[in-house]
Amino acid sequence: MKFLIIIFFLLSTFMTFSPAAENYDTRAFRILTKLCKSCHGTPFYMAKQVDDDDWEFYFETEGKLEKIHKNKPKGLSSLKSSLFKQHKKRLEKFLVNNSKFSGKVHGCDANFCGAHH
Question: What is the DSSP letter of 90?
Answer without folding.
Answer: H
